[in-house]
Prior knowledge:
A: mainly beta; 8-stranded antiparallel sheet; disordered N terminus; B: alpha+beta
Amino acid sequence: MIGDLYNANNVVVGQAATFFAPKNTPLPAFARVAPSIIGWNQADPFDAGFLGATLWASGAATSTIFTYTLDGKAYPGASLTVAGTTGPLIQTNLVNALVAGGLSPTIANAANVSVQGTSPNWNIVFRGPLAGGVLTKVDTGGASTVTNPLWLPCGATDQGWQFGAAKSTQSINIEEQSTPVAMTVTSQQVTLAASLSEDITRTLNLALNAQNTTTAPATGVAGFDTVTLTDTVLTYAVAMVSANPEGFGRIVYAPQWTQLANASVNLRRASDKRMYGVQFETVCATNLIQIINFTVAGL
Amino acid sequence: MSEHDEDRASSEGRPPVKERESQAHEAPADDETTFVLPEGLPFQCTALHLPQEDGATLVIDRDGAHVPSADLEALREQAALSGVLLNTEVSD
């Protein structure tokens, strides 16, 4: 998804990917990391699997028809019998739907559609060019539940992400001593900043503190999104994923951030891309800002 | 609401507030609508608009909406094009 990482002597060169979700959304359970590494690709922490997995609880359904919708096109699958189903069977069902809908097998294949888990709970991850769609289902004989991921990727950037923790301090001095006798933190600003370079509705919402309505296509009417700006400050949960010297993932997470940076976008014919500057800033208690640093593989 | 207010509401041809509230929470009088909730709306998206051939637009927000039962399957397919499943919560 994003470039390779290089490390030597604990010096790590590597990028980060940032995801956002409704405020106070927790990270997925780390139990999914080990021992079977469901949904978490430790070889590539940027992989969407951990934060971007779709959960399917097959429940009491006897059969289900999945439909994956990507870029406004629906890819309905064949009926899937729930009893005795396996990860490979679900995977084949979804891949076949995508191929039948006209996608090339070089894209719609088992590498880009992974299914893990055991009945009745399954994790489905659409990777690479298949990411960003929505999985829906129609059940017969009982209800199953599809939970699409709450976490959405912020997408590509101009020059990666910048993590900052700027403190403002106050020295406490006494007359009898030249050096401070104490230091207090008067304020602290924890930020994640980037120039988003995917000019899509999701980026516009983030960059402009906006929300959208979606209008479905109809006969003679194109489908479209209407982005509406608001003075109400929108608050997000944000997680930035990167790698550490051990080669495992690292997640910078806080449950409440705002994004109120000024946007100034150049629209050029050929010389450069459009870029939307964003700066997430925490608006939660300091001890809710956490960095999870995976150090050892699961047993 | 006082008894005086109740009397005045009745005299104006409107049902008293209690009666009106109970109507609001019941299913519509005609049983030809189905209550649906949208699934798959990104959290930044506040509502799904479904344009109809007669020029009207059905708006389904996160709280759901009543839609004509006869049109449900067509509306499902239309919504699916935008990646949204219309989930039938209450069917009359």
